[in-house]
TrEMBL record:
<feature type="transmembrane region" description="Helical">
    <location>
        <begin position="369"/>
        <end position="393"/>
    </location>
</feature>
<dbReference type="InterPro" id="IPR051447">
    <property type="entry name" value="Lipoprotein-release_system"/>
</dbReference>
<keyword id="KW-0812">Transmembrane</keyword>
<keyword id="KW-0449">Lipoprotein</keyword>
<dbReference type="Pfam" id="PF12704">
    <property type="entry name" value="MacB_PCD"/>
</dbReference>
<comment type="similarity">
    <text>Belongs to the ABC-4 integral membrane protein family. LolC/E subfamily.</text>
</comment>
<keyword id="KW-1003">Cell membrane</keyword>
<keyword id="KW-1133">Transmembrane helix</keyword>
<dbReference type="GO" id="GO:0044874">
    <property type="term" value="P:lipoprotein localization to outer membrane"/>
</dbReference>
<feature type="transmembrane region" description="Helical">
    <location>
        <begin position="20"/>
        <end position="45"/>
    </location>
</feature>
<feature type="domain" description="MacB-like periplasmic core">
    <location>
        <begin position="25"/>
        <end position="247"/>
    </location>
</feature>
<protein>
    <submittedName>
        <fullName>Lipoprotein releasing system, transmembrane protein, LolC/E family</fullName>
    </submittedName>
</protein>
<dbReference type="GO" id="GO:0098797">
    <property type="term" value="C:plasma membrane protein complex"/>
</dbReference>
<feature type="transmembrane region" description="Helical">
    <location>
        <begin position="321"/>
        <end position="349"/>
    </location>
</feature>
<dbReference type="InterPro" id="IPR003838">
    <property type="entry name" value="ABC3_permease_C"/>
</dbReference>
<feature type="domain" description="ABC3 transporter permease C-terminal">
    <location>
        <begin position="277"/>
        <end position="400"/>
    </location>
</feature>
<feature type="transmembrane region" description="Helical">
    <location>
        <begin position="274"/>
        <end position="300"/>
    </location>
</feature>
Protein backbone atom coordinates (compact mmCIF):
# COMPACT_ATOMS: atom_id res chain seq x y z
CA UNK A 1 0.00 0.00 0.00
CA UNK A 2 1.30 3.45 -0.87
CA UNK A 3 2.24 5.73 2.01
CA UNK A 4 -0.45 8.34 1.18
CA UNK A 5 -3.19 5.71 0.89
CA UNK A 6 -2.11 4.08 4.17
CA UNK A 7 -2.33 7.40 6.05
CA UNK A 8 -5.67 8.30 4.39
CA UNK A 9 -7.22 4.96 5.39
CA UNK A 10 -5.75 5.29 8.89
CA UNK A 11 -7.30 8.76 9.33
CA UNK A 12 -10.72 7.42 8.28
CA UNK A 13 -10.58 4.60 10.87
CA UNK A 14 -9.09 6.64 13.70
CA UNK A 15 -11.17 7.81 16.67
CA UNK A 16 -12.08 11.50 16.58
CA UNK A 17 -11.37 14.06 19.22
CA UNK A 18 -14.42 15.81 17.79
CA UNK A 19 -17.31 13.36 17.29
CA UNK A 20 -18.99 15.69 14.82
CA UNK A 21 -16.24 15.00 12.25
CA UNK A 22 -17.01 11.26 12.35
CA UNK A 23 -20.75 11.95 12.09
CA UNK A 24 -20.30 14.19 9.05
CA UNK A 25 -18.03 11.58 7.45
CA UNK A 26 -20.70 8.88 7.97
CA UNK A 27 -23.36 11.23 6.59
CA UNK A 28 -21.14 11.84 3.54
CA UNK A 29 -20.88 8.09 2.85
CA UNK A 30 -24.65 7.61 3.27
CA UNK A 31 -25.36 10.68 1.13
CA UNK A 32 -23.21 9.43 -1.72
CA UNK A 33 -24.78 5.96 -1.46
CA UNK A 34 -28.34 7.36 -1.50
CA UNK A 35 -27.56 9.67 -4.40
CA UNK A 36 -25.98 6.91 -6.47
CA UNK A 37 -28.80 4.46 -5.69
CA UNK A 38 -31.44 7.08 -6.56
CA UNK A 39 -29.75 7.82 -9.88
CA UNK A 40 -29.48 4.13 -10.77
CA UNK A 41 -33.16 3.54 -9.95
CA UNK A 42 -34.33 6.68 -11.79
CA UNK A 43 -32.32 5.88 -14.92
CA UNK A 44 -33.52 2.27 -14.73
CA UNK A 45 -37.13 3.45 -14.67
CA UNK A 46 -36.76 5.92 -17.55
CA UNK A 47 -34.90 3.34 -19.62
CA UNK A 48 -37.59 0.77 -18.82
CA UNK A 49 -40.36 3.17 -19.77
CA UNK A 50 -38.69 3.90 -23.09
CA UNK A 51 -38.00 0.21 -23.75
CA UNK A 52 -41.52 -0.98 -22.90
CA UNK A 53 -43.30 1.83 -24.71
CA UNK A 54 -41.15 1.31 -27.78
CA UNK A 55 -41.62 -2.45 -27.57
CA UNK A 56 -45.38 -2.13 -27.21
CA UNK A 57 -45.59 0.30 -30.09
CA UNK A 58 -43.40 -1.73 -32.41
CA UNK A 59 -45.15 -4.99 -31.62
CA UNK A 60 -48.58 -3.42 -32.00
CA UNK A 61 -47.95 -1.42 -35.15
CA UNK A 62 -46.16 -1.80 -38.43
CA UNK A 63 -42.74 -0.28 -39.10
CA UNK A 64 -43.88 1.53 -42.26
CA UNK A 65 -47.40 2.37 -43.49
CA UNK A 66 -48.32 3.18 -47.09
CA UNK A 67 -51.45 5.19 -47.85
CA UNK A 68 -52.95 7.15 -50.71
CA UNK A 69 -52.48 10.90 -50.60
CA UNK A 70 -56.08 11.21 -51.79
CA UNK A 71 -58.93 9.89 -49.65
CA UNK A 72 -60.26 7.44 -52.26
CA UNK A 73 -58.33 4.46 -50.86
CA UNK A 74 -56.07 1.98 -52.61
CA UNK A 75 -57.76 0.21 -55.53
CA UNK A 76 -56.40 -2.80 -57.40
CA UNK A 77 -54.35 -3.42 -54.30
CA UNK A 78 -53.53 -7.12 -54.70
CA UNK A 79 -50.97 -6.78 -57.53
CA UNK A 80 -49.48 -3.72 -55.81
CA UNK A 81 -49.15 -5.65 -52.53
CA UNK A 82 -47.48 -8.60 -54.29
CA UNK A 83 -45.00 -6.26 -56.00
CA UNK A 84 -44.09 -4.32 -52.85
CA UNK A 85 -43.51 -7.53 -50.88
CA UNK A 86 -40.57 -8.26 -53.18
CA UNK A 87 -38.75 -5.01 -52.38
CA UNK A 88 -35.37 -5.16 -50.58
CA UNK A 89 -35.55 -4.88 -46.75
CA UNK A 90 -39.31 -5.65 -46.73
CA UNK A 91 -39.96 -8.79 -44.69
CA UNK A 92 -43.78 -8.73 -44.56
CA UNK A 93 -46.75 -6.69 -45.77
CA UNK A 94 -50.45 -6.68 -44.91
CA UNK A 95 -53.52 -4.88 -46.29
CA UNK A 96 -55.97 -3.08 -44.03
CA UNK A 97 -59.11 -0.96 -44.13
CA UNK A 98 -59.55 1.55 -41.28
CA UNK A 99 -62.58 3.57 -40.32
CA UNK A 100 -64.01 5.05 -37.10
CA UNK A 101 -67.24 3.45 -35.91
CA UNK A 102 -69.63 3.34 -33.00
CA UNK A 103 -69.66 -0.02 -31.20
CA UNK A 104 -72.54 -0.70 -28.81
CA UNK A 105 -73.75 -3.55 -26.65
CA UNK A 106 -77.16 -3.06 -25.11
CA UNK A 107 -77.39 0.51 -23.83
CA UNK A 108 -73.62 0.98 -23.66
CA UNK A 109 -71.58 2.20 -26.59
CA UNK A 110 -68.38 4.01 -27.47
CA UNK A 111 -66.37 5.18 -30.43
CA UNK A 112 -63.64 2.91 -31.76
CA UNK A 113 -61.30 2.39 -34.68
CA UNK A 114 -62.29 -0.69 -36.63
CA UNK A 115 -59.82 -2.35 -38.97
CA UNK A 116 -60.58 -4.89 -41.60
CA UNK A 117 -57.71 -7.36 -41.98
CA UNK A 118 -56.48 -10.52 -43.59
CA UNK A 119 -55.46 -12.36 -40.36
CA UNK A 120 -52.57 -14.40 -41.77
CA UNK A 121 -51.02 -11.23 -43.20
CA UNK A 122 -51.81 -9.02 -40.20
CA UNK A 123 -50.00 -11.36 -37.82
CA UNK A 124 -46.77 -10.87 -39.81
CA UNK A 125 -46.73 -7.08 -39.17
CA UNK A 126 -48.42 -6.79 -35.76
CA UNK A 127 -48.69 -8.78 -32.53
CA UNK A 128 -52.04 -7.37 -31.44
CA UNK A 129 -53.74 -10.65 -32.32
CA UNK A 130 -51.25 -12.83 -30.45
CA UNK A 131 -52.30 -12.27 -26.83
CA UNK A 132 -55.93 -13.02 -26.02
CA UNK A 133 -57.43 -12.85 -22.55
CA UNK A 134 -60.65 -14.53 -23.72
CA UNK A 135 -61.50 -16.38 -26.89
CA UNK A 136 -59.23 -16.27 -29.94
CA UNK A 137 -58.87 -14.81 -33.41
CA UNK A 138 -59.40 -18.13 -35.20
CA UNK A 139 -62.85 -17.12 -36.40
CA UNK A 140 -61.36 -14.21 -38.36
CA UNK A 141 -59.42 -16.71 -40.48
CA UNK A 142 -62.55 -18.70 -41.35
CA UNK A 143 -64.36 -17.12 -44.33
CA UNK A 144 -67.61 -18.83 -43.30
CA UNK A 145 -67.22 -19.04 -39.50
CA UNK A 146 -70.85 -18.23 -38.66
CA UNK A 147 -73.97 -16.44 -39.88
CA UNK A 148 -72.97 -13.44 -37.77
CA UNK A 149 -69.52 -12.07 -38.76
CA UNK A 150 -66.84 -12.30 -36.03
CA UNK A 151 -65.13 -9.36 -34.35
CA UNK A 152 -62.15 -9.11 -31.99
CA UNK A 153 -62.07 -6.29 -29.41
CA UNK A 154 -59.44 -4.74 -27.16
CA UNK A 155 -59.81 -5.66 -23.49
CA UNK A 156 -60.56 -2.12 -22.27
CA UNK A 157 -62.95 -1.52 -25.16
CA UNK A 158 -64.84 -4.71 -24.27
CA UNK A 159 -65.02 -3.62 -20.62
CA UNK A 160 -66.33 -0.19 -21.63
CA UNK A 161 -69.30 -1.61 -23.52
CA UNK A 162 -69.74 -4.63 -21.24
CA UNK A 163 -69.19 -7.22 -23.95
CA UNK A 164 -67.70 -10.69 -23.57
CA UNK A 165 -66.92 -13.59 -25.90
CA UNK A 166 -70.09 -14.87 -27.57
CA UNK A 167 -72.00 -11.58 -27.21
CA UNK A 168 -73.38 -9.74 -30.21
CA UNK A 169 -72.40 -6.09 -30.66
CA UNK A 170 -73.80 -3.51 -33.04
CA UNK A 171 -71.28 -1.64 -35.21
CA UNK A 172 -72.51 1.58 -36.80
CA UNK A 173 -70.48 3.23 -39.56
CA UNK A 174 -70.73 6.94 -40.39
CA UNK A 175 -70.37 5.94 -44.04
CA UNK A 176 -74.09 5.83 -44.76
CA UNK A 177 -76.44 5.24 -47.69
CA UNK A 178 -78.24 8.12 -49.32
CA UNK A 179 -82.02 7.55 -49.26
CA UNK A 180 -85.06 9.75 -49.93
CA UNK A 181 -85.06 10.40 -46.19
CA UNK A 182 -81.44 11.53 -46.10
CA UNK A 183 -78.20 9.84 -45.20
CA UNK A 184 -78.79 6.62 -43.26
CA UNK A 185 -75.75 5.17 -41.41
CA UNK A 186 -74.76 1.61 -42.20
CA UNK A 187 -74.78 -0.87 -39.36
CA UNK A 188 -73.95 -4.53 -38.90
CA UNK A 189 -74.15 -6.97 -35.99
CA UNK A 190 -70.98 -8.85 -35.10
CA UNK A 191 -70.32 -11.68 -32.68
CA UNK A 192 -67.38 -11.20 -30.29
CA UNK A 193 -64.92 -14.02 -31.03
CA UNK A 194 -62.03 -12.86 -28.86
CA UNK A 195 -60.71 -10.15 -26.57
CA UNK A 196 -57.03 -9.20 -26.87
CA UNK A 197 -54.75 -7.41 -24.41
CA UNK A 198 -51.59 -5.71 -25.70
CA UNK A 199 -50.74 -3.83 -22.49
CA UNK A 200 -50.85 -0.58 -24.48
CA UNK A 201 -53.94 1.37 -23.52
CA UNK A 202 -54.28 3.20 -26.83
CA UNK A 203 -54.97 -0.08 -28.61
CA UNK A 204 -56.75 -2.00 -25.86
CA UNK A 205 -59.30 0.81 -25.39
CA UNK A 206 -60.12 1.74 -28.97
CA UNK A 207 -59.29 -1.00 -31.47
CA UNK A 208 -61.37 -3.76 -33.00
CA UNK A 209 -60.64 -6.17 -35.87
CA UNK A 210 -62.93 -7.77 -38.41
CA UNK A 211 -62.37 -9.61 -41.67
CA UNK A 212 -61.40 -7.41 -44.61
CA UNK A 213 -64.40 -8.47 -46.71
CA UNK A 214 -66.76 -7.62 -43.82
CA UNK A 215 -65.13 -4.20 -43.44
CA UNK A 216 -65.48 -3.50 -47.16
CA UNK A 217 -69.17 -4.41 -46.98
CA UNK A 218 -69.76 -2.31 -43.86
CA UNK A 219 -67.95 0.75 -45.18
CA UNK A 220 -69.28 0.41 -48.70
CA UNK A 221 -65.79 0.08 -50.18
CA UNK A 222 -65.78 -3.00 -52.45
CA UNK A 223 -62.26 -4.25 -53.18
CA UNK A 224 -60.64 -1.15 -51.64
CA UNK A 225 -58.16 -0.87 -48.78
CA UNK A 226 -56.91 2.22 -46.98
CA UNK A 227 -53.43 1.13 -45.93
CA UNK A 228 -50.64 -1.36 -46.57
CA UNK A 229 -48.49 -2.06 -43.52
CA UNK A 230 -44.90 -3.29 -43.71
CA UNK A 231 -42.35 -4.96 -41.47
CA UNK A 232 -38.75 -4.27 -42.41
CA UNK A 233 -35.40 -5.81 -41.52
CA UNK A 234 -33.88 -2.66 -39.95
CA UNK A 235 -36.10 -0.54 -37.71
CA UNK A 236 -33.71 2.40 -37.65
CA UNK A 237 -33.63 2.63 -41.44
CA UNK A 238 -37.41 3.06 -41.59
CA UNK A 239 -37.34 6.57 -43.17
CA UNK A 240 -35.04 5.51 -46.02
CA UNK A 241 -36.88 2.23 -46.64
CA UNK A 242 -40.19 4.10 -46.51
CA UNK A 243 -38.98 6.38 -49.31
CA UNK A 244 -38.06 3.31 -51.39
CA UNK A 245 -41.54 1.84 -50.86
CA UNK A 246 -43.17 5.16 -51.72
CA UNK A 247 -41.12 5.45 -54.92
CA UNK A 248 -41.93 1.86 -55.92
CA UNK A 249 -45.66 2.38 -55.29
CA UNK A 250 -45.76 5.32 -57.68
CA UNK A 251 -47.35 8.74 -57.77
CA UNK A 252 -50.16 9.46 -55.33
CA UNK A 253 -48.79 7.41 -52.42
CA UNK A 254 -47.09 8.47 -49.19
CA UNK A 255 -45.50 6.62 -46.30
CA UNK A 256 -45.15 7.17 -42.57
CA UNK A 257 -42.97 5.20 -40.18
CA UNK A 258 -42.87 4.39 -36.48
CA UNK A 259 -40.28 7.12 -35.82
CA UNK A 260 -42.46 9.86 -37.30
CA UNK A 261 -45.59 8.62 -35.59
CA UNK A 262 -43.97 8.56 -32.14
CA UNK A 263 -41.28 11.25 -32.41
CA UNK A 264 -42.78 13.48 -29.71
CA UNK A 265 -43.19 10.60 -27.28
CA UNK A 266 -39.59 9.40 -27.56
CA UNK A 267 -38.21 12.95 -27.51
CA UNK A 268 -40.13 13.60 -24.28
CA UNK A 269 -38.76 10.38 -22.75
CA UNK A 270 -35.21 11.33 -23.72
CA UNK A 271 -35.58 14.79 -22.19
CA UNK A 272 -37.08 13.27 -19.07
CA UNK A 273 -34.05 11.00 -18.68
CA UNK A 274 -31.64 13.95 -18.96
CA UNK A 275 -33.61 16.11 -16.53
CA UNK A 276 -33.89 13.20 -14.08
CA UNK A 277 -30.13 12.66 -14.22
CA UNK A 278 -29.47 16.33 -13.51
CA UNK A 279 -32.01 16.76 -10.71
CA UNK A 280 -31.22 13.57 -8.82
CA UNK A 281 -27.51 14.17 -9.46
CA UNK A 282 -27.86 17.16 -7.14
CA UNK A 283 -28.13 14.64 -4.28
CA UNK A 284 -24.58 13.54 -5.10
CA UNK A 285 -23.49 17.19 -5.14
CA UNK A 286 -24.97 17.70 -1.66
CA UNK A 287 -23.10 14.61 -0.48
CA UNK A 288 -19.93 16.06 -2.01
CA UNK A 289 -20.43 19.22 0.06
CA UNK A 290 -20.54 17.01 3.14
CA UNK A 291 -17.23 15.50 2.05
CA UNK A 292 -15.76 19.00 1.72
CA UNK A 293 -16.96 19.94 5.20
CA UNK A 294 -15.73 16.67 6.75
CA UNK A 295 -12.27 16.99 5.18
CA UNK A 296 -11.98 20.67 6.12
CA UNK A 297 -12.76 19.86 9.74
CA UNK A 298 -10.38 16.90 9.60
CA UNK A 299 -7.56 19.14 8.34
CA UNK A 300 -8.21 21.47 11.28
CA UNK A 301 -8.19 18.52 13.67
CA UNK A 302 -5.03 16.99 12.18
CA UNK A 303 -2.99 20.18 11.82
CA UNK A 304 -0.42 19.02 14.41
CA UNK A 305 -0.15 15.58 12.76
CA UNK A 306 0.37 17.22 9.38
CA UNK A 307 3.08 19.45 10.83
CA UNK A 308 4.87 16.46 12.36
CA UNK A 309 4.75 14.56 9.06
CA UNK A 310 6.11 17.54 7.14
CA UNK A 311 8.88 18.09 9.70
CA UNK A 312 9.88 14.44 9.14
CA UNK A 313 10.31 15.08 5.42
CA UNK A 314 6.83 14.46 3.94
CA UNK A 315 6.39 16.80 0.97
CA UNK A 316 3.36 19.12 0.54
CA UNK A 317 2.31 17.14 -2.56
CA UNK A 318 2.15 13.96 -0.50
CA UNK A 319 0.03 15.68 2.15
CA UNK A 320 -2.29 16.90 -0.58
CA UNK A 321 -2.63 13.36 -1.93
CA UNK A 322 -3.41 12.01 1.56
CA UNK A 323 -6.56 14.12 1.81
CA UNK A 324 -7.45 13.67 -1.84
CA UNK A 325 -7.35 9.91 -1.31
CA UNK A 326 -9.31 10.26 1.92
CA UNK A 327 -12.13 12.04 0.12
CA UNK A 328 -11.91 9.54 -2.71
CA UNK A 329 -12.20 6.64 -0.26
CA UNK A 330 -15.38 8.16 1.18
CA UNK A 331 -16.77 8.50 -2.34
CA UNK A 332 -15.72 4.99 -3.40
CA UNK A 333 -17.33 3.40 -0.34
CA UNK A 334 -20.55 5.37 -0.80
CA UNK A 335 -20.61 4.71 -4.56
CA UNK A 336 -20.03 0.98 -4.05
CA UNK A 337 -22.91 0.55 -1.61
CA UNK A 338 -25.10 2.89 -3.69
CA UNK A 339 -24.56 0.79 -6.82
CA UNK A 340 -25.40 -2.40 -4.92
CA UNK A 341 -28.57 -0.86 -3.45
CA UNK A 342 -29.68 0.75 -6.72
CA UNK A 343 -29.17 -2.36 -8.83
CA UNK A 344 -30.76 -4.60 -6.19
CA UNK A 345 -33.96 -2.51 -6.12
CA UNK A 346 -33.98 -2.21 -9.92
CA UNK A 347 -33.56 -5.95 -10.46
CA UNK A 348 -36.32 -6.70 -7.95
CA UNK A 349 -38.61 -4.22 -9.70
CA UNK A 350 -37.75 -5.74 -13.07
CA UNK A 351 -38.61 -9.23 -11.85
CA UNK A 352 -41.66 -8.68 -9.63
CA UNK A 353 -43.38 -5.59 -11.18
CA UNK A 354 -44.41 -4.48 -7.69
CA UNK A 355 -45.32 -0.88 -8.67
CA UNK A 356 -48.56 -0.72 -10.66
CA UNK A 357 -49.65 2.20 -12.85
CA UNK A 358 -52.90 3.49 -14.26
CA UNK A 359 -52.79 2.31 -17.88
CA UNK A 360 -55.17 5.08 -18.94
CA UNK A 361 -52.56 7.65 -17.94
CA UNK A 362 -49.23 5.93 -18.62
CA UNK A 363 -50.21 3.52 -21.45
CA UNK A 364 -48.58 0.63 -19.54
CA UNK A 365 -49.94 -1.05 -16.41
CA UNK A 366 -46.77 -1.39 -14.29
CA UNK A 367 -43.60 0.58 -13.64
CA UNK A 368 -40.82 -1.04 -15.69
CA UNK A 369 -37.20 -1.25 -14.57
CA UNK A 370 -34.34 -1.78 -17.02
CA UNK A 371 -30.97 -1.45 -15.25
CA UNK A 372 -28.00 -1.02 -17.58
CA UNK A 373 -24.28 -1.42 -16.89
CA UNK A 374 -23.59 1.77 -18.86
CA UNK A 375 -25.78 3.77 -16.46
CA UNK A 376 -23.78 2.43 -13.52
CA UNK A 377 -20.52 3.50 -15.17
CA UNK A 378 -21.87 7.01 -15.83
CA UNK A 379 -23.26 7.39 -12.30
CA UNK A 380 -20.03 6.11 -10.72
CA UNK A 381 -18.00 8.52 -12.85
CA UNK A 382 -20.24 11.42 -11.80
CA UNK A 383 -20.04 10.48 -8.13
CA UNK A 384 -16.26 10.06 -8.09
CA UNK A 385 -15.69 13.18 -10.21
CA UNK A 386 -17.85 15.47 -8.07
CA UNK A 387 -16.35 14.07 -4.87
CA UNK A 388 -12.83 14.57 -6.20
CA UNK A 389 -13.61 18.21 -6.95
CA UNK A 390 -14.93 18.62 -3.39
CA UNK A 391 -11.57 17.43 -1.97
CA UNK A 392 -9.45 20.02 -3.80
CA UNK A 393 -9.86 22.86 -1.30
CA UNK A 394 -9.28 20.93 1.97
CA UNK A 395 -6.34 18.98 0.47
CA UNK A 396 -4.73 22.22 -0.74
CA UNK A 397 -5.26 23.75 2.70
CA UNK A 398 -3.51 20.77 4.30
CA UNK A 399 -0.55 21.13 1.93
CA UNK A 400 -0.14 24.78 2.96
CA UNK A 401 0.31 24.03 6.67
CA UNK A 402 3.56 25.50 8.04
CA UNK A 403 5.18 23.07 10.49
CA UNK A 404 6.85 25.79 12.55
CA UNK A 405 3.63 27.74 13.04
CA UNK A 406 1.61 24.61 13.83
CA UNK A 407 4.09 23.28 16.42
CA UNK A 408 5.10 26.59 17.99
CA UNK A 409 2.93 26.25 21.06
CA UNK A 410 2.92 22.45 21.32
Amino acid sequence: MRFELFIAARYLRAKRRQAVVGVITAISVVGVAVGVASLIIALSITTGMRRDLQGSLLSSTADVDLTRTMSDGIQNWEPLLARLRELPHVTAAAPGLYDPVLISHGVRGTGAMLKGIVPKDERTVSNLLSDFTHGSGVALSDPESSATPPIVLGSDLADTIGASVGDTVLVTSPQGDLTPYGLVPRYQRFQVAGIFHSGFYQYDSSFGFIRLKDAQALFGEPDVISIISFKIDNLYQAPAIGQQIEKAAGKGFSTTNWMEQNRQLFAALQEEQVVTFIIIGLIVCVAALNILIALTMMVMEKTKDIAVLMSMGVEPGQVRRIFLLQGLLISVIGTFFGLILGYAISLLGQHYHFIHLNAQVYSIDYLPFAPRILDGVAVAALSLGVSLIATLYPSSSAARVLPAEALRYE
